[in-house]
Write a structure and sequence with these properties.
Keywords: Glycosyltransferase, Transferase. Residues 307-734 form the Glycosyl hydrolase 94 catalytic domain. Pfam families: GH94_b-supersand, Glyco_hydro_94. The protein starts with a strand and ends with a strand. 27% of the residues lie in helices and 25% in strands. The chain has a domain at 12-309: Glycoside hydrolase, family 65, N-terminal domain (Beta-galactosidase, Chain A, domain 5, Distorted Sandwich), CATH 2.70.98. Bound molecules: beta-D-glucopyranose and 1-deoxynojirimycin. Beta-D-glucopyranose binds at residues 355, 483-484, 645-646.
C-alpha cells in the first residue's frame, strides 16, 4: 500500500494522507540553520548544533506521536483546523504534503478555505520561512482568524528537559510590533537570541504557553483560541512561546499571503557581558527586512531551487529504469547531503542530544557527498582529523558546535582510524586535490601538536599495524563498524556492554572485518605515499597489506565464508562451529570488495554463502541465525531480540558492500538484485509494512526472525545513503572517480539496456553514453572520448577541456 507518490518532475514526494504509518519527515537548511518538518508540521529547529542551540522544543516519545511543531491554526466559524492536520486533527476536505529538496509544502482545504503553506530555510539567512497563503474558494465572503504557534526551547536541549528547577525561572521574551524575541539566558551566558515574526500587524499575541495553550489544555484545543483570542501575555519564566493572531477577511476567490519568519541572531563577538539586558535587534531587523514582501520570499525560494538543481546536475543518469533514475538523480543524493549535515545527530530517531558527529559515520558520509560540494568535504576531513589522538586512535564522536571530541564516549573503536584514510582518499579521487595532505592539522584539537594531514593518515595506518592480536588480525577494541560486537566485554552488569573504556576494555579480541578494511584502504594509503614520492613507505605499506590479506585468507577463513572475529578468549565468532551467529555479512562484503580471495575462489564461495544463509526478500541480514539469548562474551549485539538491529536485522548499510563485492566478481544481475531489495523507490508499494519514508533509506529493516519482518527503523541518518550512492553510481552504473581520472567500469544486469550519465568532475562536464549490444554484465570493450578511441577504461584528463563526450561499449 502507498500513502503518496513520487513527482519526479517537481523533485518531490507527495504524501496524500496525514495518517502515514510513522511521521514522514524532511530536512530544511543546508548551512547553519536547520529544521526537521514532518508531514503533519511536527518537528523542531536548531542552529548548527541540535543539542547546544535548540531553538524550538520537541517531545520525543510523545502521545499522540509527533505532537509538537510549528503550527498554524485556522479558526473559521466553529471549526478550527491546521493545514498539516496536527495538532487539532480536524478532518480536512483535502490534504497534501509535498516534501521537496530543502522545502516542504502543505496544501489543505476545509469548508471552502484553502491553505497553502511553504516551509524552507533560505540559503543565506539563519531562519526558517513559512509562507502561508489563504484562498477563499467558496462563493461567499469569509472572515476568519489565523493563529501561529511555536514553543521555544531554552537552548541546551538536554538541560531543557532535565534542569527544571532552574529553567522554569529563566524564560524571558521581548515583544516589538510583530516580532516576538526569545531571549532566555541572554542576560548572562548567551550571546544570541531567537525571534518569530510575521509581515503584518497582528491583532493579538501571546508569549506564555500557559496563556495560549493553557495549563491543562492539549495543543489541539488551545485556551486562547477557544476563549476568543490571544491574551497579550508576556512570559516570565515557565514556558515561553510565540503566537500571533491575525484576522482575515477574503472575498470569494481572493487570496492573502503571510510570511512568518523564525530566526536566530547573534551579537557582535565583542559584546560586553555586563551590558544591560536589552537585545541588540539590528541583526534580526536586517534579516526580517528581506522577508516583508512575497517577492523577497519568492526570490529566496527560487535561489534555493536553483542551488539544488545545480548540485544535482553533478550526477544525473537517464536509464530505462525510472526508479533508478529517481533515486540516483534526486533522493539518494539528497539524503547524502542530509547525512553530511547531520551525521547521526538529529532525526526522529536521534534526539539531537545523544550523538553528535561520528568519526566513522562522518568519514563514510563523505563518500556520497564529496562530488556535491568538495570544499565542504575538505573542511570536514580536517575537522574530523583534528579529533584524532597522536597514537592514531580517535574520539568516536565530536560535538558539531565546538568540534571537540566527546570525552564521555571516548575512543577505542578500532575501525575508526582507517575510515579517515577512506574519507580522504574519496576526496582526493574526486578532486585530484593532493594539497589537502599538506594541511596542518592538530591532534585532539591541541594546536601545539599540528602535523600535516598525511601524517594523520600514517598514524591511522600504523594504528592497525601495531594493534594486532594472537592470529595477526587487527584487535577489535571496544567494537569495529558493528558497535554492538563488544568482544572484550566481561561485565555481567546488564547494559554495560557499550560503556566507556575501563575494565571492559581488553586487547585480545580480533576483527576480520578490520582486516578487510585494512586491505582496502591500506592500498589507498600506499598510493598516497607513492604520490608523495615516498616509495619505500609505499612499498612497506603494501607489504603490510599483503601480509594482512594472507592472514585474513588463513586465520580469517571458516571454510565456506569469512569468519567475523575472535573473541577475547580466542573463540571464533561467525563460524559454522558456533551455535548461533554462524555467519555475518560484514567480512563477506568488505573482504571481497577489498579483493581478498578473488583468485583463490574464496570470494565466490563467501558470496554464495551470503545468498544461501543471509538473503531474504527484503534484503540481506547482518547475521544468522540470530542470537536467541544474551552472550556475555559478545556484548550488546545479543541484547536485541532476534531479527532486530545488529542481532539479525537487515542492516541497510552493509547491503551495498555485498552488492559492490558482487560487481568485483562481475555479477551484474545479483548486484542489482541486492540494490533493489532495500532501495526505497522499489519498496514504496509496501509502505504499510516498511513504515518509514519511501524516499529515503532507513538504517535497519527488521529481519526474518523478527515479528515485524520488513519494518524499517531509524530512517534518514545512516551510512546507507553514502554507500548505496557509491554502489549504484560507481560500481553498478560504473562511473568511478579515480586518482587520474574517471574510470568507466559498469556492472549491470544483462538486460539493463543502454544509459547515459552526466557527471561533473574536476571542473568539467562529462556526458557518458554506455551501450550493451552483447548483453554482458561487466566491463567495457571500447571507449571513445571526444571522438577519439582510447585504450583501457580510464578517461584521461586533458588540460583545458571542459566538455567530454564519451561513448562506452560493454
Ligand atoms: C546501536 C548501534 C549504534 C550504537 C551507538 C547501539 O545501541 O544498536 O546501531 O551504532 O548504539 O550509538
Ligand atoms: C550505527 C552507527 O551510527 C554506526 O557507526 C555503526 O557502524 C552502525 N550503527 C552499526 O553498529
Amino acid at each position: 500500500m502507498k500513502f503518496g507518490y513520487f513527482d519526479d518532475k517537481a523533485l518531490e514526494y507527495v504524501i496524500t494522507t496525514p495518517r502515514t504509518p510513522l511521521p514522514w519527515i524532511n530536512y530544511l537548511g543546508c548551512n547553519d540553520f536547520f529544521s526537521i518538518v514532518s508531514n503533519t508540521c511536527g518537528g523542531y529547529s536548531f542552529y548548527k548544533d541540535a543539542k547546544m542551540l535548540r531553538i524550538t522544543r520537541y517531545r520525543y516519545n510523545s502521545m499522540p506521536l509527533d505532537s509538537n511543531g510549528k503550527y498554524y491554526y485556522i479558526q473559521d466559524g466553529d471549526v478550527t483546523w491546521n493545514p498539516g492536520w496536527q495538532p487539532t486533527q480536524t478532518p480536512l476536505d483535502f490534504y497534501e504534503c509535498r516534501h521537496g529538496i530543502g522545502y516542504s509544502r502543505f496544501t489543505a482545504k476545509k469548508n471552502g478555505l484553502k491553505a497553502d503553506l511553504l516551509n524552507f530555510v533560505p540559503l543565506h539567512d539563519t531562519c526558517e520561512l513559512n509562507r502561508l497563503t489563504l484562498t477563499n474558494e467558496s462563493e461567499a465572503p469569509k472572515s476568519f482568524k489565523v493563529f501561529s504557534y511555536v514553543e521555544f526551547c531554552l537552548w541546551n536541549a538536554l538541560d531543557d528537559m532535565t534542569n527544571f528547577q532552574r529553567n522554569l525561572s529563566t524564560g524571558e521574551v521581548e515583544i516589538d510590533g510583530a516580532t516576538i524575541y526569545h531571549k532566555t539566558e541572554y542576560r548572562e551566558r548567551r550571546n544570541h537570541y531567537a525571534f518569530f515574526s510575521v509581515n503584518a500587524k497582528p491583532d493579538g499575541f501571546d508569549t506564555s504557553r500557559d496563556a495560549f495553550i493553557g495549563t491543562y489544555s492539549p495543543a489541539s484545543d488551545p485556551d486562547a483560541i477557544r476563549n476568543g483570542g490571544c491574551t497579550g501575555s508576556v512570559a516570565s519564566g515557565w514556558y515561553p512561546v510565540a503566537a500571533h493572531e491575525l484576522h482575515v477577511i477574503l472575498t470569494p476567490g481572493e487570496s492573502k499571503t503571510f510570511l512568518f519568519v523564525l530566526g536566530y541572531a547573534e551579537n557582535p563577538k565583542d559584546r560586553k557581558w555586563e551590558a544591560p539586558n536589552v537585545i541588540n535587534k539590528a541583526p534580526a531587523r536586517r534579516l526580517l527586512a528581506k522577508y516583508q514582501t512575497t517577492e523577497g520570499a519568492d526570490a529566496a525560494f527560487a535561489e534555493l531551487k536553483a542551488y539544488w538543481e545545480n548540485l544535482l546536475e553533478g550526477y544525473h543518469v537517464e536509464s530505462r529504469d525510472e526508479k533508478v533514475n529517481r533515486m540516483v538523480n534526486i533522493w539518494n543524493q539528497y539524503q547524502c547531503m542530509v547525512t553530511f549535515n547531520m551525521s547521526r545527530s538529529a532525526s526522529y530517531y536521534e534526539s539531537g542530544i545523544g550523538r553528535g558527529m561520528g568519526f566513522r559515520d562522518s568519514c563514510q558520509d563523505l563518500f556520497g557527498f564529496v562530488h556535491l560540494i568538495p570544499e565542504k568535504a575538505r573542511q570536514r576531513i580536517i575537522d574530523i582529523a583534528s579529533t584524532q589522538f597522536e597514537d592514531g586512535s580517535a574520539y568516536h564522536q565530536y560535538q558539531p558546535l565546538t568540534r571537540r571530541g566527546n570525552a564521555d564516549i571516548g575512543s577505542g573503536f578500532n575501525d575508526d582510524p582507517l575510515w579517515l584514510i577512506a574519507g580522504t582518499a574519496a576526496y582526493i579521487r574526486e578532486t585530484g586535490d593532493f594539497s589537502i595532505l599538506d594541511e596542518s592539522v592538530p591532534f585532539d584539537n591541541d594546536e601545539a601538536t599540528c602535523v600535516p594531514l598525511f601524517e594523520h593518515l600514517t598514524r591511522s595506518f600504523e594504528y592497525t599495524v601495531t594493534h594486532k592480536g594472537p592470529h595477526g588480525l587487527p584487535q577489535i577494541g571496544r567494537a569495529d563498524w558493528n558497535d554492538c560486537l563488544n568482544l572484550n566485554c566481561f561485565s555481567d552488569t546488564p547494559g554495560e556492554s557499550f560503556q566507556t573504556t575501563g575494565p571492559s576494555e581488553g586487547p585480545i579480541a580480533e576483527s576480520v572485518f578490520i582486516g578487510g578494511m585494512f586491505v582496502r584502504y591500506g592500498k589507498d594509503y600506499a598510493k598516497l605515499c607513492a604520490h608523495r614520492g615516498l616509495l619505500d613507505k609505499a612499498k612497506a605499506a603494501m607489504t603490510e597489506v599483503q601480509k594482512m590479506e594472507q592472514t585474513v585468507l588463513n586465520a580469517g577463513w571458516d571454510g565456506e565464508w569469512f569468519l567475523r572475529a575472535y573473541d577475547a578468549n580466542g573463540q571464533k565468532v561467525g563460524s559454522h562451529e558456533c551455535e548461533e551467529g554462524k555467519i555475518f555479512i560484514e567480512p563477506q562484503g568488505f573482504c571481497v570488495l577489498a579483493g581478498i580471495g578473488v583468485k583463490e575462489g574464496k570470494a565466490e564461495k563467501a558470496l554464495s554463502s551470503v545468498e544461501k544463509h543471509l538473503d531474504t526478500k527484503y534484503g540481506i541480514r547482518i547475521l544468522a541465525p540470530s542470537y536467541s539469548h544474551y552472550y556475555l562474551n559478545l556484548g550488546e549485539i545479543s541484547s536485541y531480540p532476534p531479527g532486530y538491529k545488529e542481532n539479525g536485522g537487515i542492516f541497510c548499510h552493509n547491503n551495498p558492500w555485498v552488492s559492490i563485492a558482487e560487481t568485483v566478481l562481475g555479477h551484474g544481475t545479483r548486484a542489482f538484485d541486492i540494490y533493489k531489495k532495500t532501495c526505497p523507490a522499489y519498496i514504496e508499494d509496501i509502505s504499510e509494512i516498511h513504515c518509514t519514508e519511501p524516499y529515503v533509506y532507513s538504517q535497519m529493516v527488521a529481519g526474518s526472525d523478527a515479528k515485524y519482518f520488513g519494518q524499517g527503523k531509524n530512517s534518514w541518518l545512516t551510512g546507507t545513503a553514502a554507500w548505496t550512492f557509491v554502489n549504484i553510481s560507481q560500481h553498478i552504473l560504473g562511473i568511478c572517480p579515480d586518482y587520474d581520472g574517471l574510470r568507466i567500469d559498469p556492472c549491470v544486469p544483462k538486460d539493463f539496456g543502454s544509459y547515459t550519465v552526466s557527471r561533473r568532475f574536476r571542473g568539467a562536464m562529462y556526458r557518458i553514453h554506455i551501450s550493451n549490444p552483447d548483453h554482458v554484465e561487466k566491463g567495457i570493450r571500447k571507449l571513445t572520448v571526444n571522438g577519439k578511441e582510447v585504450s583501457g577504461n580510464l578517461i584521461p584528463i586533458t588540460e583545458g577541456v571542459t566538455k567530454y563526450e564519451v561513448d562506452a561499449v560493454m
